[in-house]
Amino acid sequence: TDSDTADEAVRATCDDATTCKRFATSKGYWKDPYMQYFARSVGERKAPEINRGYYARVQGMNHLLDAFIRKTECDCQVINLGAGLDTTFWRLKEENLLPRKFFEIDFPTVVARKIHNIKKKPPLSKPIIETHSTDSLLLDAHSLDSDRYCIIGADLRDISTLDQKLKKFQLNQELPTMLLSECVLVYMTPSHSSNIIHWAAESFHTAMFINYEQVNMSDRFGQVMIENLQRRQCNLAGVEACQSLESQKERFLKSGWEHADALDMMTVYSMLPQEDVARIERLEFLDEKELLHQLLQHYSICWATKDKLNLGLSQLAY
Ligand code: SAM
After folding, report:
1. How close is the Cα of 255 to the center of ligand 1, in Å?
2. Quick one: DSSP state of residue 259?
3. Is the CB of 236 under 6 A from ligand 1?
4. Banded pLDDT at 3 (limits 50, 70, 90)
5. Is the CB of residue 76 less than 8 Å from the CB of residue 178?
6. Does 61 contact ligand 1 (Cβ within 6 A)?
């Protein structure tokens, strides 16, 4: 059916993210020794502005996530929504920043691929086994559950099943909780994504939500981005929420979140540690700065908090 085709195109976007991240790390934009186990070859060359865009995206997300984990002294949980083949669990383990439990959700077929790789590659499975206390570790085709890491196959548009599965795997509603969505909500209708945002606000008294996706999509450049995706059968069903930084914040504030901030990625890029930015700008020559700026102005990070425990979450920023 049409909707199966559309879902398949959305699932395929996780390969884009993986191959682009793999290429950028092969050039030295940032280190990720785990990516190689999910994308076998480095793949074809990506333009320097794409690599810088991914650098801003990954560093931008990591900055807020790490700040939250430090603020809670790791006494927290993380739920990565539409995680794809993301490697953050392994990075956090290596950096001694593991939350009490790290959850990931994606479509069952994507999760099955991820679990298959984990099973076959000891550098991926070892850290999971090391952080697990008993001999029994739940590992089947569509879910993995260990003490510190849990991967669940589920459709994010079906909130009651999602909620049920998370609870089955010991989601703790009393713990400060970070929800991440990196290029995920934009593929859903505004009503599906606001259901998720609303569910998250209802489920936790102390929480932070970080959403990375397109913004400023009503101008000419944004229209071209949309057309390029549509050519690949990929429909940005949620693009309505991507009109402006204001509309990004608004959907959190009207769904039970106390505080929200949003920045476009050009601004985030200018606020990242500038020595490291100078280092990556020397990696590849970029002639056309204007294109990079346009691209960065069409993506954003929006973050929202609620803070019953008064941890000071609303102060987390760049
Ligand atoms: N967050 C990862 C990253 O940034 O590297 C992957 C991003 S990829 C562009 C989008 C991911 O969201 C895909 O893995 C896709 O399968 C997942 N996704 C989209 N809609 C979903 C839904 N309704 N239920 C579960 N996963 C979904």
Report:
1. 22
2. E
3. no
4. confident
5. yes
6. no
